[in-house]
């Protein structure tokens, strides 16, 4: 097969986490619309997992992705998490039809899909543990607040960028600016009370803070920002918050 990929399904798209492509020009970080894909038909409609010749499967011939890619053969298997929820897919494409013997590899491919699912599940757990380790143990710390400083924030930020690329995580970074006369320790304590265990916060100097909200999309982050503003306003502190989404590039 000319293309092999491991994808994560999120936000109506297949995010490409691992790609081995000899034909189509697809790369890590690219995404395919879920509704247009073959994989949605395999997952949601029970279409065949292995199709040596897609011309013989009307359900795949009707897929809109055919307008973008020449697909003569298809292979797709779901990747499930520990809660038996869909994480993504193991998928392969080729512009040309393949021998019918391709179907004989289904048991082997199912085993590989289960192994990949297990590996990804543990990689997500390891990523969360690494976030905590970086936040708690980073040597660059602010003396006033005890939080990671600018160098610590840079490492937190870059680490999460890699999580987005390799695991399809969607996170949000937020920057908080308060007045110069605001008490930075009160701000730090307030943020610690409002944020989740999975999140991180750093003191960037003065009354500027960086906040990482992991596994959090723009809408969820906006609600958290509202809670932060309300909590600090109640303490007579006016703050400005700016947020950016971290998604696979």
UniProtKB/TrEMBL annotation:
This is Diguanylate cyclase. It comes from Alcanivorax sediminis. InterPro entries: GAF (IPR003018), GAF-like_dom_sf (IPR029016), GGDEF_dom (IPR000160), Nucleotide_cyclase (IPR029787), Rev_trsase/Diguanyl_cyclase (IPR043128). PANTHER family: GAF DOMAIN-CONTAINING PROTEIN, SLR1143 PROTEIN. It comes from the Bacteria. Residues 160-249 form the GGDEF domain.
């Amino acid at each position: 097969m000319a293309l092999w990929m491991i994808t994560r399904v999120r936000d109506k798209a297949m995010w490409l986490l691992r790609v081995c492509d000899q034909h189509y020009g697809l790369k890590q970080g690219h995404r395919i619309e879920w509704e247009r894909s073959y994989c949605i038909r395999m997952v949601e409609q029970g279409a065949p997992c292995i199709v040596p010749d897609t011309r013989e499967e009307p359900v795949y011939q009707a897929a809109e992705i055919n307008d973008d890619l020449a697909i003569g053969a298809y292979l797709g298997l779901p990747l499930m998490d520990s809660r038996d929820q869909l994480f993504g897919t193991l998928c392969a494409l080729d512009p040309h039809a393949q021998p019918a013997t391709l179907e004989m590899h289904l048991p082997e491919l199912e085993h590989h899909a289960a192994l990949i699912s297990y590996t990804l599940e543990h990689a997500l757990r390891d990523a969360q543990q690494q976030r905590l380790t970086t936040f708690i143990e980073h040597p660059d710390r602010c003396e006033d607040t005890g939080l990671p400083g600018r160098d610590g924030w840079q490492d937190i930020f870059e680490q999460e960028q890699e999580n987005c690329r390799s695991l399809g995580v969607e996170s949000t970074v937020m920057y908080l600016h308060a007045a110069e006369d605001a008490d930075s320790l009160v701000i730090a304590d307030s943020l610690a009370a409002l944020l989740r265990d999975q999140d991180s916060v750093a003191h960037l100097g003065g009354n500027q803070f960086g906040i990482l909200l992991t596994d959090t999309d723009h809408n969820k982050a906006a609600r958290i920002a509202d809670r932060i503003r309300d909590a600090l306003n109640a303490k007579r502190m006016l703050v400005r918050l700016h947020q950016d989404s971290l998604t696979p590039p």
